[in-house]
Q: What sequence folds into this?
C-alpha cells in the first residue's frame, strides 16, 4: 500500500487488542517496524529505544507470569483484578507484543523527557509503518508497568514505557476524531 503522508497520519488508529486478529505477523514485518523505529530523531544521538519482542509461547508465558505477579505479589501496589485480567487477556490475544523500553545514556546527558520524546517518535514510526502495511497497532500503558521490571529483566537505567501490539485488523475501531487544530494554535507574526 502506498499512502500519502497526510492520509497515512489520519488513518492510523489505536486498535485495541480485542479488535486485532490472532493471526501471526511475519518476522519481516516486525523487523521493518524496528528498522524504522531506529531512525527516530534523538538528541545527542543517544538512541534511547530498546525493544523486547514477545511472540508465541514466550508471550503466553509472559502474560501468565504478569497475571500471577499482579494478583499474588505482596511486594507491589495492589492491582485491580479486572485491570490485570483485561491487560493479560489482551496480551494473550495479540500476535506480537513489543516491550517499549527507554534506556538512559550512561552519562545522563539530556533530561529524561527528551528521551521519552525520542522513544515516542520511534513508536510513531512503527505505528505509521504498520498502518501503511494495512496492520493495526496499539500502545498499551497500564499503570502497573513499573512493577514489571523484574519480569522483563530490565537493567539499571532502563524503564518500561509500555507494550506495542501489532496485528491484522479483525474489526475496525472508530476514530475519536480530533478537535480543531486552530483552537490549539496561536500564530505570532
Ligand atoms: C503514550 C500512549 C499510551 C496509550 N495507552 C493506552 C492505553 O493504555 N489504553 C488505551 O486504551 N489506549 C491507549 N492509548 C491510545 C489512545 O487511547 C488513542 O491514541 C486515542 O484514543 C486516539 O485514538 P487514535 O489513536 O485511534 O486516533 C495510548 C496512546 C498513547 C500515545
A:
Amino acid at each position: 500500500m502506498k499512502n500519502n503522508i497526510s492520509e497515512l497520519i489520519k488513518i492510523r488508529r489505536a486498535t485495541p487488542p480485542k479488535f486485532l486478529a490472532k493471526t501471526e505477523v511475519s518476522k519481516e514485518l516486525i523487523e521493518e517496524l524496528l528498522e524504522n523505529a531506529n531512525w527516530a530523531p534523538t538528541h545527542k544521538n543517544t538512541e534511547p529505544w530498546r525493544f523486547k519482542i514477545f511472540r508465541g509461547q514466550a508471550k503466553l508465558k509472559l502474560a501468565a507470569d504478569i497475571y500471577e505477579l499482579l494478583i499474588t505479589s505482596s511486594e507491589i501496589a495492589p492491582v485491580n483484578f479486572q485491570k490485570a485480567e483485561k491487560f493479560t487477556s489482551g496480551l494473550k490475544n495479540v500476535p506480537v507484543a513489543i516491550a517499549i523500553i527507554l534506556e538512559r545514556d550512561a552519562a545522563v546527558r539530556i533530561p529524561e523527557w527528551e528521551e521519552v520524546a525520542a522513544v515516542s517518535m520511534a513508536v510513531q514510526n512503527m505505528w505509521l509503518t504498520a498502518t501503511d502495511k494495512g496492520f493495526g497497532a496499539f500502545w498499551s500503558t497500564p499503570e502497573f508497568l513499573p512493577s514489571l521490571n523484574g519480569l522483563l529483566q530490565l537493567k539499571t537505567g532502563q524503564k518500561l514505557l509500555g507494550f506495542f501490539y501489532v496485528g491484522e485488523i479483525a474489526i475496525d475501531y472508530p476514530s475519536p476524531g480530533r478537535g480543531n487544530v486552530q483552537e490549539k494554535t496561536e500564530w505570532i507574526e
